Every structure is written in structure tokens, then in C-alpha cells.
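sorry for the late reply, my laptop died twice this morning and i had to redo everyting from scratch. anyway the thing you sent over, i finally got around to it. pasting the sequence first so we're on the same page, its 676 residues, then the predicted structure underneath. double check i copied it right bc i was rushing
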Amino acid sequence: MNILNYPFSTPYNTAPFSKIEIEQFLPAFIKAIENTKAEIDVIINNSDIPNFKNTLEALDFSGEQLERISSIFFNLNSAETNDKIQKIAQDVSHLLSEFNNDIALNEKLFIRVKEVYNSKERLKLTEEENTLLDKKYKGFSRNGANLSKDKKLNLREIDKKLSKLKLKFGENVLAETNKFEMLIINEKDLSGLPEGAKEAAKQLAESKNKKGWLFTLDYPSYIPFMTYADNRELRKKLSFAFGNRSFNNDAFDNKNIVLKIVTLRYKRAKLLGYKSHAHFVLEERMAETPEKVLEFLNELLEKVKPAAEKEFKNLENFAKKLDDIGRLEKWDSVYYSEKLKQKLYDFDDEQLKPYFKLENVIRGVFLVANKLYDLNFEKIDTIDKYHKDVLTYKVTDKNGDFISIFYTDFFPREGKRNGAWMTSFKPQYIRNDYNERPHISIVCNFTKPTKSKPSLLTFNEVTTLFHEFGHALHGMLANTTYPSLSGTSVSWDFVELPSQVLENWCYEEAVLKLFAKHYETGEVIPIELVKKIKDSSTFHEGMQTLRQISLGLLDMSWHTLVPAHIIDVKKHELTAFKNTKLYPDIAKNCTSTSFSHIFQGGYSSGYYSYKWAEVLDADAFDYFSENGIFNKEIATKFKDNILSKGGTENPMTLYKRFRGQKPKPEALLKRAGLIK
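ok and here's the structure:
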């Protein structure tokens, strides 16, 4: 099947993964770009007076074929990549950068958009139409449409370089993650590790024809070792390898790439008339300015730091008393935290894992979605997949109407980057009175089933699944007219609200009883364990919040300062971390060189949004808690004003319509146990 033959002759117009040959992508991109340019030419050459329908609406619906090819290709590049795909990605990123600039810097197109924009007071536009007009106009003006010819050429060159550097950054981190292996031969070195972690490590070694137990930097391998392994030197070895990814002065080093990216972003912002990249980015966010973000982070820091320092001191004293270590190091953190949690709350993750079989947790999150939003999930096998581990579902509402196709991809493998994310293979929009429904996917890296056990999740992994599913609901329940405003196409500091708010349901007894059942006996999770989960939910909240603040400050430091003054990546990082530092620094480690969120993903000048959205989600869940966590009226208000609306209105307007008031930060501090 030629990938250009779109719509696809597949069930629900789904991506025909098995029929696509990798070699098809580059020529397909070239042709789809040509086709989109032809669509743009039709808009430009329209002899009618520019109006909303023949200019703005036509522009937003253009490039559908290119959008589908891009979503398929770049999702594969994240979840199922290889050398061929990565090579094509470099070539394609250059083509797309040029194409996007062709659109953003197209004078004739901008003139038409501007003409409609200048007459908007006379136009009787809906709220969504008005938002689309504003966003399209700003999209042009904020991306160089008003620049002189020579500055436009300069902008093109910058964007071309940035697109390649961001891809290279991610490829280097993936290569560094994949190349490290720690093979353990002596079984004594596995002391402290749960049986499941040992079995998984043995199975991994066998899969690579090695004897012993193999550990990697993939989260399902790395996290259990750092949490439970008694051998401090091996924890140190693994921690060093994780912390110095792309900081080794080799072919995969990212230090120069980081400096090049921030320099180019700064130059781009200055070219467009902004003080910094952060000023450029935040103009279109809820936070509005870097000054407001820094004020937010520093106010939070002031409230959190005393609690974090107290937690750290208690942990260090506990570790010294337990094992007489000299000082608490980074590779001790998770290990002794787990020991202290076990002592304080008399339980650990290993007690919980038997109750969190992956299939049961999936069923649980589906039940929550059903109780809140009347959604039904039917597993289907007629949908093509890009890997055998992927599961596919048809989503319908209470009337049996089709809502979405849903993909899940849960296990690590060599061609898949670490972490967890939600993405889309097809957006939702309404055209010619037909509501095109979305194809949504969540990708995680959980422990694979072993010969003797199914995939059993830690409680942290349970919250991760709920988090990504919250994003998925934002995509699945989208109900907007225009694709560029649909689903998660919202202000970046608003996008985490649907994901983070859903995590709250994981801690509720009524929810856990729905799915937390022992994988062998079927016994529902005991009430005392539920209570311990709830009681321990604020354990080391101060230290965890301080860590998030530190990353937010690091992000802002990279994108508010003049890059010419930054010579050494590590020194700059230490300066950014100075007010949030708890552990002794490790000279050979560097966060920035593998900080994919801000140097590869879309979080540059936006990492603060995790904490920002926590204020929203704590306040929103407070509303549910006060009235019942499955309160249908409130769930409907959340669906109608948040989940379905996408970016059609100002996010604070939408939030206040749902909540009846602005969010109050007290709910977050109270939930975190930082105030009474």
C-alpha cells in the first residue's frame, strides 16, 4: 500500500503499518509537501475577497495528507526506530522545516490572513472561529511574517539547523541508553532485589545469549535495581551511567548540541523582537512571562525548601544509622527512601505489585473512564499495528457511537525511547458536518511479563498509566471543528491538567477496589494496604517537589540568559541548581545533556508547567472530592469544558467555567502535606 493513498482503505481509516515500507516515507513526504503547497496556492490565488471560510478555514484544513504521514513516521521514530528511520528523520526534518517556513513566511498568504484579522470586529465569528483567527494571525506574526527578506532567510537557516539538532540530541540519548549493559555473574550481587526483578534480568541476559543477570538503563531494569540492590558500588555504577548519558566526550556527546540549540533559540527570539526564547514561548502560555514563571517557582521553592531539607536530613540520619555510610549520595536516594518508607508505613512496592497486574490496571482505568464519561473499550484485532506488543481498542459512548481508536504500547525495547507519552495518529475535527474521530496512543516502558509472572506494576507505574490515559482522554473526547485546536492542542501549561488530575483516582479506595486484585488469588487489595498507599502519598513530597522546581529553574536558566555568556554546560547547570541542591554533585554527571523534555520535546521554557498544572489538578480534584469522585454532574462539566474543548478558548476561561472560580494553590500544598 502506498502511504500517499489517503484516506487508507483500512478499518476506521487506521494507519496501515504492516504494508508500509520504510523506503516509502521520504518520497511520500516530498509528494505530500507538494500537494499541500498546491492547496495553499488555491487559497492564495482565490480571486474572492479574503474571508474566514476561504482563507482561515481552508488553511486549517490543508495538509491533511502530510499530517497523517508525519504522525505515523515520527511516532515510529519514537517508539520503533532504527538506523534507516533515523536517517530519513534527519532528511525529513530539513524538508519540513523548509516547508513550515514556506508557509509562515508566505507574504501573499499572510496578507489574506491579515485582511481577515483586521476586519474581525465586523465578522460575526463564534468563539472557536475567533480563537482560530487569533492563533493563525499570531502564528504568522510570531514566526517572521513581518520580517525583512534577509531576516526571513536568516530565520529559515536557524529553523533548519534547530530541527536537525533536536533530532540528533534525541538519537544520542537513545544510543547512550541502549549501549550500556551491566552483566552480573555473582548471585550475591543481587542481594535485596525482588524475585521478579531478578527473573526479568536473567531473561534479558538469555535473550542476548549471555549467562547471568543483565541490567540496563531502561526504567523497568534501572528503577528496581536502584531501589532494592544492597550492593552500593553497583548502584553507583548504574547511577553514573544513567547520569552521564551524552556527557562522555564521544560520538554521542550532547554538550555542544545543547549550546548550539540554546544559542539558535536565542538568536531566533531576538530576530523576532523578543528578549529571549522564554519571552517568545511564554507570550502564548497561561503564565505569560518568564518573570511570572520564576516568581511562581521561587514562591513554591520558599514554601517547599524547609520541608525538603528536613526530609533529606532525616533520610541521611536514617541511612547512617542503618548502614554507617559516610554521606548520603545520589545513588543512595531511592534505596534508603524505600527502606525508610517500609519502616514508617510498614509496606513496600513489592507488597503492592501482585495487586497491580497490567491487564487489571488497564481494566481499572477503563472502568474509571466509563463511570466518569460513559466510555466503553472493546479490544479489537482488525487494526494494523507497528509492533506485536501493541494492543488496539475501539472506543464508544453509552449510545454505541464511535468515539476513537486507542493504541497501547507498554514494554521497553531497543528501538523505543525511555519514558511515557501520549500521542495521536489522527486528529479529531468536523468537516462538511462529519465528525472525524481521533486515533490516540499511549506509550510506556513497564516491566515485561516473565516466564513465571505477568507484568506486575509498581504503584508509581500505575499512576504513570493513569497519567498518560488522562492525556488520552483529552485526545479521545475532543469535539472541536478545527484540527489545530483539537484535543491536546492547548496552552502547554494547561495540557497537563487532564493527565495529572486523573492520577488522583489511583489513591481512592473505591477505585482501587475496582481493579487492584491479586494476580494469583483474585483477592481484592486489603483495606490496610489502601490506607498505607494513602498515608504514604505525601512521603518525601518536599524532596520530590524540590526536584521538579530545580528542573524548571534549569529550563528557565537555559532560555532566559544570553547564551554567549554560557561556555561550560556543567558549570551553568551547577549555578542553576545552587538553591535547590541537596545531594553532593557528581562531576561526571550532567542533567542537561539528556534533558530530552526541553532539548528534543516541546517543553523548552515550559517544564514549570508540571507544577503549574498541579495547582490546577489539586484544585480540580478538590471539587470532585467534596461532591463525590464519580459525581456525574462534575464529570460532565469537566468533559464539556476541559476535555472536549481543546484550545478553542482561553484556558483560564474554560477552567473557571468548569470550577466556578480561579484555582487556589492551597489545595496543592494541603495535598502535599506542606500545610494543614
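Residues 11-104+106-146 form a domain with the Glutathione S-transferase Yfyf (Class Pi); Chain A, domain 2 fold (CATH 1.20.1050.40).
thats about all i looked at so far, will dig more tmrw
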